[in-house]
Amino acid sequence: MSISRSTPSRAGTGSRSRAAAREPRPAYECDACGHQPPKWVGRCPECGEWGSVVECTVTGPTVSGRVVSSRVPAEPPGPSATISAAPARARPTGVGELDRVLGGGLVPGAVVLLAGEPGVGKSTLLLDVAQQWAAGAGSPSLVVSGEESVSQVRLRAERMGTLHDQLFLAAESDLAAVLGHLDAVKPGLLVLDSVQTISTTGTEGVPGGVTQVRAVTAALVAVAKGRGVATVLVGHVTKDGQVAGPRVLEHLVDVVLHFEGDKHSSLRMVRGVKNRFGAADEVGCFEMHEGGISSLADPSGLFLTRYSEPVPGTCVTVAMEGRRALLTEVQALIGATVAGSPRRTVSGLDSARLAMVLAVLQRRTERLTLHDREVFAATVGGIRVVEPAADLAVALAVASGGLNLAIAPHLVAIGEVGLTGEVRRVGAVPRRLAEPTSTGAGPEQMRVIEVTDVRSALQAAARASAE
Q1: Which of 11, 17, 282, 413 is 20 to 30 A from 272 via CA?
Q2: At what angle do helices 150-160 and 122-136 cross, to 10 degrees?
Q3: pLDDT digits (tens, 9 = 90+) for 95-135
Q4: 380-419: per-residue pLDDT in tens?
């Protein structure tokens, strides 16, 4: 004997669930204090009154069992055409390369997070920015240091020549004291160095911890928006170069900048990662020196070497740093023949792409023998070039060094090299061509030579060198 069981249809189940969703849900509320427990209890857990919890009907959205009711907003919404954009206009900081990355300058009420390795020059740069702001913006600037004393900051300002009557310095590690300084100075720019050193007594956790950093940043963002104070927060980085602290830290602020640079090089770069007021892929170039830091409007000279005579093993390319085109020289040295596995050493280049270019040259050219020879490749000036557009320049530099043939100094190579030896087009070609060459020639004096593979590129380079 079989027993059949009827199963309700999906349509019937869905209609009943939708009907149940439309019906008011029962809830419970205390008549004495208004507390809403999630279920019925004999005694109110809030006020302790017995028999005061009664059933009621929920007619609005709830959060944690409590009904969220609407209220009149402080400022009603208005048509977009009638809203003024003047409060969101950027004000120049006086540091040209930083203004380039920020999209014109600092917006009142904006919060900027600047992160970088220890000792790279973050405090030096921001001290210069604070002095330029105090001198030209018409409002005071306040630098609060949680890592140095006021005397140490003053000594740096004296060495850099950035002392000013409207530049105020303070050393604090408590959020309440920082807010007190804001009330006293009323600055237009606040620099906090660093956010990981500030703590607040109203939040648990140690200074620099996730909870403290989140609470301090949220409070500073609220103050900056409410008072219209442009705020720059210095942030620490982890060992892999990421911003230290919770990921929500980058979501709270308006702009995230990375300060990069090799300690053995004078070049420093500020790279935009997030920007609510402009492009997020801009790069600013700076030079560190004994007197502080200065902007480099045309940094290409740092990445080129001036030769009295052409030298084998060099080639110039145009690298893209964000939206910025930079003339960069690639150098290659071919060592002696060795037994076993020869060394492949790079500086400022991608070792994997160098190995691929060497394999292509070995296979697609007849005169080059590289499999048993040491190869050293590097960029000039400490810049790091990892984009595929530099493949052709690396190939020509290696071939020039291996064949002991100098490439013409006015030749610039741009292109990606494939495994079959073909040369592919790369992005931002008009922007790369607009960058003047090492001889100062502009686009109108250039002659563009298109090549299809590595072999034809070597032939074109040899013809250009013979001219």
Answers
A1: 413
A2: 70
A3: 999 999 999 999 999 999 999 999 899 999 999 999 999 99
A4: 988 899 999 999 999 999 999 999 999 988 899 999 999 9
Distance CA 64, CA 35 (A): 12
Tell me, what amino acid is at 287? E
* Alpha carbon separation from 297 to 96, 281, 284, 385, 393 (Å, rounded): 8, 17, 8, 19, 25
Kindly tell me the number of DSSP H helices and DSSP E strands found in the chain: 11, 19
427-439: b (≥16 Cβ within 10 Å) or e: ebeeebbebebbe
The two tokens of residue 345 are 């050493």
> Which residues, in sequence order, are CB contacts of 112 under 8 Å at separation 6+?
102, 106, 230, 231, 232, 233, 253, 254, 255, 256, 257
Tell me how far apart the alpha carbons of residues 107 and 91 are, in angstroms, rounded to a whole number. Answer: 6
- With tokens 């394999």, the residue in question is 359
From CA 132, how far away is CA 89, in angstroms rounded? Answer: 18
Among 63-67, 301-305, 419-423, whose mean pLDDT is lowest? 63-67
Here the tokens at position 365 are: 């050219």
Q: What is the DSSP string of 371-417?
A: TTEEEEEEESTT--B-SGGGHHHHHHHHHHHHHT-BPPTT-B---EE
